[in-house]
Write a structure and sequence with these properties.
P-loop_NTPase; four-stranded antiparallel β-sheet; membrane; 2 domains; ATP-binding; cell membrane; two-stranded parallel ribbon
Amino acid sequence: MSDLVNVENLTIDFATNFGDVQALRGVSFSLKEGEVLGIVGESGSGKTVACRAILKLIAGNALVKSGRIMFEGSDVLAMKDAELGRLRGGQAAMIFQNPSTHLDPIMTVGRQVGEAMVVHQGISWRQANARAIGLLEDMHIKDAARRAVPIHMSCRVACVSG
């Protein structure tokens, strides 16, 4: 079985007013379909930078000094916006470190889950609502349909940062 994700010798710095700051040095790992990989380290060791790099969500001042990131044989660092749009949310996603700052408290959970499906899978809001309820039921959330609240208009890789 070939690699789903392959990160090879990835080195990333960040340009600052005080010079370049090293974030990653020669990081390599691979992941096959169905595998789970845990990346552990101290705060500031580059775990989040590595995960964000897989989706090419690194800051504008990031300097990829060496290495490559392959997703199903495609070079992520060479992807254009349209390709990245299909990758992000459709094939790979990131659960950010502090979900309370990334989940909208005035949006229903059904809408938040469904919106990603509408954007990345091109399904209708009605289909997304049904899938969102199904996902909540799969997670054993009581009264999933009520908690999802109907949305008015519908991942193989997830990086959890924290």
